[in-house]
Amino acid sequence: MFRLKYVKYESRKEAARPTPLLTPRRTVQVAKEMRNYNISLLGLSETRWLQAGQMRLASGETLLYSRRTENSAPHSQGVALMLAPEAQRALSGWAPVCPCRLITTKFETKKSNIKLNVIHCYVPTNDDEDEKKHDFYQLQAVLDKRREKDIKILMGDFNANMGSDNTGYDVMGTQGMGKMNENGEHLADL
């Protein structure tokens, strides 16, 4: 089994740039940093690729990535997970759930009857259309499908401001700044 250490890496550049931001060259750089920090599982947001699949890098890491479904889709959004070889060996399944915004993985653990479910997401911003936000929040259904005894890790870019007022919520502290926005409410209600 592998000892899980994970972080989120955002690949942000100019919004007008029409090429994927997680290019093969950038992928090599990210994999190198992943090894330098001894990270087994790395969540990537805003990859901006137009396909879904699994790719094995020459350095041994595996990249699982989501896609845009429309043929003429702009290079925007997208999520991926980069796995170190030890995480790849424990991987028992994965799927892009909400195209370009949600990817789920399942890993074997030392306890044969318990699985580790990692869900990486990229939430629409507060300014996005309500339909996009509604489509994304099938996330709750994804979480509900997981067995209660399995371990669940939800990570990603939630585009949320949690604020410092935690009245009515048992899931956050008072260390946030500003006021809670709509995405913050969705995250706290999750």
Automatic annotation (TrEMBL):
Residues 19-166 form the Endonuclease/exonuclease/phosphatase domain. SUPFAM superfamilies: DNase I-like (SSF56219). InterPro entries: Endo/exonu/phosph_ase_sf, Endo/exonuclease/phosphatase, Swc5/CFDP1/2. Transmembrane segments: none annotated. GO terms for molecular function: catalytic activity. This is Endonuclease/exonuclease/phosphatase domain-containing protein. It comes from Muraenolepis orangiensis. The lineage of its organism: Eukaryota, Metazoa, Chordata, Craniata, Vertebrata.
